[in-house]
Each structure stands twice: as structure tokens, then as C-alpha cells.
Design goal:
With 280 residues, the chain is α+β, with helices and mostly antiparallel strands. The protein is 61% helix and 10% strand. The longest helix has 26 residues. The radius of gyration is 20 Å and the shape is globular.
């Protein structure tokens, strides 16, 4: 997965633009190519879903999706204007979250734009984020998406807390090569009260974020019904993410090192730093 982060910087930074006010943006036609959509029509459908998500989140669609025209060469010196969309970082984030989960590059985009969007107020350059900042960013994304995943699982018929624990365990088993939450907990040497997600590095968290978002999307998109069907879906998505990591030459999540500091410790350190900065 470290290869994913490296690849994401090259992929999405390369097509980033900056306007005269120093604000960054992306063009939909260029993002379409990077995300491996052959037909504009299909990509335009994804953009529309992202716009709806933007509206439902209480943000102005016009602030993040600006329709623009683009002149293209059609041969013999002639040009034709085609539709394009100027996208904010948040718009790109929503697009990859609503993208085709079968495309490996979507995983790259989700990790990249999740961190960039969450950390915009802290620092502008992804490459300059510390490991602790990346962990906090992706962990916060996990909190938000796990709520949505729980809702999707409930809609599929996973109601009781015990059933949801089984559902979550299936996702871990798919991603971690058969290891469930209990085994991962033991492998990390954690106390019973400590949460697994609070003791993952940014790379491991990113893999779990992709697992959660894609399971959420699949459950809703295919209107999956029944506890067993939901369990199987989470397992298969986790397994697919694991396969993607393997194909990219990444380290399996269970083999990644456990950070010395927990998310809670990092949060406390940041709070102390804010207090100290405020007293200066």
C-alpha cells in the first residue's frame, strides 16, 4: 500500500491545476482518463452522483463543480468545444467515492483525496503531512464511513449488535487473510479495551478505509438483502482489497508494523500543542 501512496502523488498531482488566486482544481476530462473511464457518458453519471452527495452533505454544488467549455482539435486545424467541469479537491473526493469499485485506481484516489480533503485546513501539501497527521485524517474518515457502513448493513438485515460484530469480522477476515478482529487484536499485542483501528499506521488504515467504503457502496448499489449475503459481501470486498495490495507489490496488512503511539495519544499531543501555541 505504500506503493499506492507513492503512485497517488504522481497520478493526481500531475493533473492538478492552480488558478490565479492560488486555488487548486482538477478538470473532469483529465480525471476521467486517470480513473480509466473510456466513455465520458459513464464518467458524467459518476459526477452527477457526486453532485448529489455534495448537495446532501449541505454544501453548494456550484462551489465545487463548475461547468466550463474546452476546445479540442478535431483535425485539419478545426476545433470543437466540449463540456468539461472544474473540480475542487472535495469534488474529486466525492467522485472517487462514487466511482467504479472494480477499478484499482479508485483505491488510489480514495486514499489520496480523503487525506487531502480532511487535512486541507492543516497543511496544503500531501507530501509534507507527517505520519501522525495521515493517521488522524484516515481514522476520522473511518469513523464517518463506519457509521454509513453500519446503516447500509442494517438496511441489508444486519440488526442485532452480535450480528454486526460478525459482519465486521468478515470484512477483517477477507482483508487479513483469514484473521478476524480477535486475532488481529492479539497480533498487535493490544489490551482488551484498546481499539484495533487506533493502533494502525496510515497504510493499514487506508486499506481498511477502502474496505469499508466499497462494502458500503456495494450493499447499497446492489440492494443486498439478508445477513449471510451481507457477511459474504464484506468478506469478498476485503478479499478483493487484499488481492489489489498483492498485485501492487504492497505489504499485507497483518505484516505492517503497529505504531508505538495510539490515535488517542496523538490527539492528546495535538491538544497540548494547541494549548501551548495559544499561550505563546
Amino acid at each position: 500500500m505504500s506503493d499506492i501512496v507513492k503512485y497517488s502523488e504522481q497520478t493526481f498531482e500531475r493533473i492538478k491545476h492552480t488558478n490565479e488566486y492560488g486555488e487548486e482544481y482538477w478538470l473532469a476530462r483529465e480525471l476521467q482518463v486517470v480513473l480509466e473511464y473510456v466513455q465520458w457518458r459513464r464518467f458524467a453519471d459518476t459526477i452527477e452522483r457526486a453532485k448529489l452527495a455534495c448537495k446532501n452533505s449541505g454544501y453548494s454544488v456550484e462551489d465545487h463543480f463548475a461547468d466550463v467549455g474546452k476546445m479540442v482539435d478535431i483535425g485539419s486545424g478545426a476545433e470543437r468545444e466540449i463540456d468539461d467541469v472544474m473540480l475542487s479537491r472535495y469534488a474529486c473526493y466525492l467522485i472517487v467515492m462514487n466511482g467504479d469499485p472494480r477499478k484499482e485506481v479508485i483505491a488510489v484516489g480514495q486514499t489520496y483525496f480523503a487525506v487531502k480533503t480532511r487535512q486541507q485546513e492543516l497543511i496544503d501539501n500531501y507530501e509534507q503531512l507527517t505520519e501522525d497527521q495521515k493517521r488522524l485524517a484516515i481514522r476520522n474518515e473511518m469513523i464517518a464511513h463506519n457509521k454509513s457502513l453500519a446503516e447500509a448493513a442494517q438496511m441489508a438485515g444486519v440488526i442485532a449488535p452480535k450480528d454486526y460484530a460478525i459482519f465486521q469480522n468478515k470484512g477483517y477476515q477477507g482483508l487479513y487473510g483469514g484473521l478476524g478482529a480477535k486475532e488481529i487484536h492479539q497480533r498487535k499485542g493490544l489490551k482488551q479495551s484498546q481499539k484495533i483501528l487506533d493502533h494502525m499506521g496510515s497504510t493499514e488504515l487506508a486499506a481498511n478505509l477502502f474496505r469499508a467504503t466499497q462494502t458500503d457502496e456495494k450493499l447499497r448499489r446492489e440492494n443486498i438483502q439478508g445477513k449471510q449475503a451481507a457477511y459474504d459481501t464484506h468478506y469478498q470486498v476485503g478479499k478483493k482489497v487484499r488481492q489489489t495490495i498483492k498485485e501492487l507489490g504492497g505489504t499485507m496488512p497483518e505484516d505492517l508494523p503497529t505504531p508505538t503511539k495510539s490515535i488517542k495519544q496523538i490527539e492528546r499531543e495535538q491538544e497540548r500543542k494547541k494549548l501551548n501555541d495559544g499561550n505563546d
